[in-house]
Sequence to fold (212 residues):
Amino acid sequence: MRPYAVLACLALLALAPRAHAAAATYRFDPVHSQITFFVDHDGYSDASGQLHIARGWFRFDPGDWSTAKVVTDIDLAGVDMGDRDWNRVVAGSDFLAAQAQPYAHFVSGEVEKTGADTGILFGQLTLRGHTVGIAFPFRFNRRAFTLYGLHTVAGFTGLATLDRKDFGIDAYTKVVGVEVKVLLEIEGIEDSGAEQAYDRQIARETVHADQK
Fold:
C-alpha cells in the first residue's frame, strides 16, 4: 500500500464513530471545565462567581454508567467574583475559608440513570471541614475523538442546589442567600494514567506538609 493510502486510512479511522468501549479514565480539562455558582444578593439579583478544578480524574463508560467514578479537588483561593476585593471576601473566613483549607474535595458514589443521556451523580463534598452528601443531576453531552490534540474527550453539564449552612457558612444571611445554585460544564481528556497521577500528587503534597 502506498504511503498516502496508509495516511488516508488512518484519517478515516480517526474520524469514524468509535464502537462501544469499556470504562475509560479521564483527566479534567481545566480550560473547558467551569464551576459557576449563583447566590441571591439581597433580592436584587443572583450574584455569580467561578471556581476552578485544581486536579482530579473521573471514570466513565457510556454503555454502563454504574462504573462511573469522580474524584476531584476544587481551588477555593482562586474564586473569581469579577472583583479583587470581593474575591478576598468570598475566599476569606466568613465564606470559603481558603487559607485554612485551600481545596474542596468531592468523591462520587453511585450514579442513577434517569434517561438516555441524563442521570444523577451522588457523592460527598467536603468544604470547610464539613462533609455533606449531595446529588448532581447531569447530562452526558458526548464522547468523541478529536483531531485537535488527537485525544478522546467526554463532556457533561450538571446543575445542583446546595445549602451553604450545611458547610458552616452562615455569615450575612440577611443579605446573601443561603441557597447556592451550582452549574458545572465539564470536559475530560481520556488518560489511562490520570488516577495514578492524582494519587502521586496527593502523596507528594502530604510528604511536603509533614516535613514543614
User: Anything to note?
Assistant: The helical segments are 3-15, 84-91, 194-211. Residues 1-20 have pLDDT under 50 and may be disordered. Residues 194-211 form the longest helix (18 residues). DSSP finds three helices and nine strands in the chain.
